[in-house]
UniProtKB/TrEMBL annotation, chains A, B:
<dbReference type="InterPro" id="IPR015421">
    <property type="entry name" value="PyrdxlP-dep_Trfase_major"/>
</dbReference>
<dbReference type="GO" id="GO:0016831">
    <property type="term" value="F:carboxy-lyase activity"/>
</dbReference>
<keyword id="KW-0032">Aminotransferase</keyword>
<keyword id="KW-0210">Decarboxylase</keyword>
<dbReference type="GO" id="GO:0008483">
    <property type="term" value="F:transaminase activity"/>
</dbReference>
<dbReference type="InterPro" id="IPR010977">
    <property type="entry name" value="Aromatic_deC"/>
</dbReference>
<dbReference type="InterPro" id="IPR015422">
    <property type="entry name" value="PyrdxlP-dep_Trfase_small"/>
</dbReference>
<dbReference type="InterPro" id="IPR021115">
    <property type="entry name" value="Pyridoxal-P_BS"/>
</dbReference>
<protein>
    <submittedName>
        <fullName>Aminotransferase class V-fold PLP-dependent enzyme</fullName>
    </submittedName>
</protein>
<keyword id="KW-0663">Pyridoxal phosphate</keyword>
<dbReference type="InterPro" id="IPR002129">
    <property type="entry name" value="PyrdxlP-dep_de-COase"/>
</dbReference>
<feature type="modified residue" description="N6-(pyridoxal phosphate)lysine">
    <location>
        <position position="310"/>
    </location>
</feature>
<dbReference type="GO" id="GO:0019752">
    <property type="term" value="P:carboxylic acid metabolic process"/>
</dbReference>
<dbReference type="Pfam" id="PF00282">
    <property type="entry name" value="Pyridoxal_deC"/>
</dbReference>
<dbReference type="InterPro" id="IPR015424">
    <property type="entry name" value="PyrdxlP-dep_Trfase"/>
</dbReference>
<dbReference type="GO" id="GO:0030170">
    <property type="term" value="F:pyridoxal phosphate binding"/>
</dbReference>
<dbReference type="GO" id="GO:0006520">
    <property type="term" value="P:amino acid metabolic process"/>
</dbReference>
Length: 500, 500
């Protein structure tokens, strides 16, 4: 019936050819995992070199898929930073779960669109169940709403938008922030040292403006000073601002501090302000009985961010936001206004996640979390989290007994900050300011050189004006031996740099 | 040295056990692809039933991973909507590429964070090269900026924010839309019938407010009426609004219409307004020589959205946005203000995508696009796209020669709308209004019943006030035989419903 004589073809490979490619991919992944402890953590190439490796004209004709897998081995792996390495201590990045890796291929094969129930029945229900598990893990009410996101930024974005939409004194869906009849300015609060940049990013994306972020003083232990919070809130309200959200950090990015959640919740309750707990890095620590008391008050938060691709070791991308009452999430995102019905399915059976978050089309992110939680169980995760904390405690002990290091804080969760400041050097220098400037530069150079050495990947941060070395122990493969290796290398490089 | 006597363990499986699980996953995927033509497209279960299937307590202890794969077969696959089926004509969803499926597992294994160059050297450079290929495919300048996003909504969101940040008469990063000294209202323009909901969603997320979306009249052929556009722009400017972006649809969601791009570009140029081309569904049609003339002017757009997870068949998630000048994207998203330096890496070697888009942590989305483009080549893609268009043309021919169907428009790209309106019935009915109301209901019922039958997945839309049947031919597996099957089923159900 088709008048065109060309035969119809699909992109599909012959099943046996696909199976062979699949097995080879599995072999490559197996070998990769088996070698991950030995690989240089960072390739030590310049961006110009790597750009050159991948420069290629748009292929006009198709290439042999076996050749493409060859390139995985010859071109991609040699220029990879290995976030799964036991000595990757950089960003707070999960080290990946093996079953999560397989889940990604399975999810891609069925390719369900979790924007809606109809194009994704199983994927939607798996997400619903897994979200309830996430809540249960951190002792948050399991009848909450929530969904998986691309990461912590979009989780915090979702929470802030939900806060704004539910707290604002007018309907912000219609006029947004362009309501000229409204004279107030919406403001958000977080602590000055340890408030996370993704909150600033979220406020920026929502066009609240960076000025809307009000920084609250922090105490000596890096937690939020709630007296200052109350004072700033009341001052701002008095001068016409509309504080709509306070963000408590739950496992802060540098030192793993947990803000005083019960107090913040009460301050927010009294003033009708949304309390968002940003636990992207640390919320899951609530599953540890010995840490539980610090998390008191998390259950009072109106919303919580927690990233499975951080401390649940899930491969990228997987953030998560929980919101105490699902209908508040729906109020913030649903677009099922009558005039839009035409482009949406008529039959709203089941849960349509597109009404509960920023994305419309959505992949099957929940599968890798669902499978990983089933594979390891809550017990397995508790053991791994404890193990990471034991490594941090071990690191702290090493730092404190070594005259060449200066600790910055008590260890708590998975992050740890300190600096290299040999006692000899400190004694030789008269002016503390000049000494500190020198140490800033020295610690930065040490971190850069360690990265380039491939032995470990560590980063710096700036705290209270000074450069410090920051290690995040977020790999389930890390042991105290890895801590020994990185500290030895750090001292070796530090001594060399001082002699130069 | 560690005082805790418990041995350190990782989440890793024994290599041979992992290999076995991996092979089994590959076997399941191979079997799945081999059976995809025969599977019922939709499981025909209620959400209550499926929710029950996956209801389970949080696992306390870990489960055997083989058991988890058993559940993939026994629980997930039976409740899957098969977007890769040749008779899935629902949302504009790509049907997946086999090599893209393997790419997802490979990407997860190395788990690079494409937010930055240092945690992702190869992934960053592959994204950079693949973005240039995307531009080349649609004849857009290849020195543009751009990046892969979670989907079309976030691509349009990125484009709109970039437009706002670069066009606004004050620095919107500081005060956002809360600049009380600014009296103007920012407005966005798109066509009334075929402007896509993701633009409304993007404006909503950016807190521009839904009122900021100004709907421009469309012509008989569903393209934007540029006279009305000019009139609306000038009226709005006269009354103090600040039009900052006009969105041209490039392959509209219902009928595949392409707005008059050259005219829109010129209207925008004259007034200093950003021209965004939303080609989420259809931009890649520009690679077909026979369609190229319709795409004239696409190269003049300030930004373009195109979704590889739509008409390039890439598995979820993969949207894409191109922006003519990379520094404009950077101006909209970079957060490297000095006061934030502390939480960002000190050494900005290479390209850090977190400065060019909304996400901070980012997965390795580019890999599946890179591998798929290499596997099929531009030539392979042109053949597949032509084939989809031939199916739509065949569908149109069938509709036009059958007295029971009413066509709505000339076929163009991959979408097609018509309705079931048997001539007998039309002749029997006196009042056209009552007839149309009946046909609205009838067509909706037909679509719902076809979904439930599992034979095909089709949807309705509402165009010019009336319910129509919409088919999107976005599977590389679809042939004219599949069109025959869905039309026969449609008539069978229609006749049955009329007799009832």
């Amino acid at each position: 019936m088709d008048t065109n004589p060309e035969p119809f073809e699909s992109l599909d490979l012959d099943p046996e050819e696909f199976r062979k490619l699949g097995y080879r991919s599995v072999d490559m992944i197996t070998d990769y995992y088996a070698s991950i402890r030995e690989l240089p953590v960072f390739p030590n190439s310049t961006s110009v070199e790597v750009e050159e490796v991948f420069r290629e004209n748009l292929p006009e004709t198709g290439q042999d898929p076996q050749h493409i897998l060859d390139e995985w081995q010859s071109k991609v792996l040699p220029y990879t930073t290995h976030l799964g390495s036991p000595r990757y201590f950089g960003f707070v990045n999960g080290s990946g779960t093996m079953i999560g890796t397989l889940a990604e291929a399975l999810a891609a094969s069925v390719n369900m669109n979790t924007g809606g129930w109809k194009p994704a029945p199983a994927a939607t229900e798996i997400e619903r169940q897994t979200i309830a598990w996430m809540a249960e893990l951190i002792h948050y009410p399991t009848d909450c709403g929530g969904l998986f996101t691309s990461g912590g930024t979009m989780a915090n974005f979702t929470a802030l938008q939900t806060a704004l939409r539910n707290i604002a004194p007018y309907d912000t869906t219609v006029k947004g922030l362009q309501n000229k009849a409204f004279s107030g300015r919406f403001t958000v609060y977080m602590s000055d040292h340890e408030g996370h940049i993704s909150i600033v990013r979220a406020a920026d994306l929502l066009n609240l403006g960076r000025e809307s972020i009000r920084l609250v003083k922090s105490r000596e232990d890096f937690t939020m000073d709630t007296q200052d919070l109350e004072q700033k809130l009341d001052e701002d309200i008095a001068q016409g601002d509309v504080p709509f959200c306070v963000v408590g950090q739950v496992g802060s990015i540098n030192v793993g501090a947990i803000d005083p959640l019960v107090e913040i919740a009460e301050i927010c309750r009294q003033r009708g302000i949304w309390f968002h707990a940003d636990g992207a890095c640390g919320a899951v620590g609530a599953m540890l009985p010995e840490k539980r008391p610090q998390y008191q008050g998390l259950e009072l938060a109106d919303s919580v961010t927690l990233d499975p691709h951080k401390w649940l070791y899930i491969p990228y991308e997987c953030g998560c936001v929980l919101v105490r009452y699902p209908e508040k999430l729906r109020r913030a995102f649903s677009l099922t206004a009558p005039y839009l019905r035409g482009t949406l399915p008529s039959d709203y059976t089941g849960l349509w996640y597109l009404d509960y978050g920023p994305q419309m089309s959505r992949g099957f992110r929940a599968l890798k979390v669902w499978m990983s939680l089933k594979h390891y169980g809550a017990e397995g995760y508790r053991n791994l989290l404890s193990q990471n904390i034991r490594c941090v405690e071990y690191l702290d002990a090493c730092v404190r007994r070594d005259k060449d290091f200066e600790p910055l804080h008590k260890p708590n969760l998975l992050m740890y900050c300190f600096r290299y400041a040999p006692r000899d050097l400190r004694q030789r220098w008269d002016d503390p300011e000049t000494l500190n400037d020198y140490l800033d530069q020295l610690n930065q150079q040490i971190a850069d050189e360690i990265q380039r050495s491939g032995v470990a990947f560590i980063m710096t941060s700036r705290i209270r004006g000074r450069v410090i070395i920051r290690l995040s122990v977020c790999s389930h493969r890390t042991t105290p031996e890895d801590i020994d290796i990185v500290l030895a290398k750090l001292k070796e490089i530090g001594e060399k740099l001082i002699r130069m």
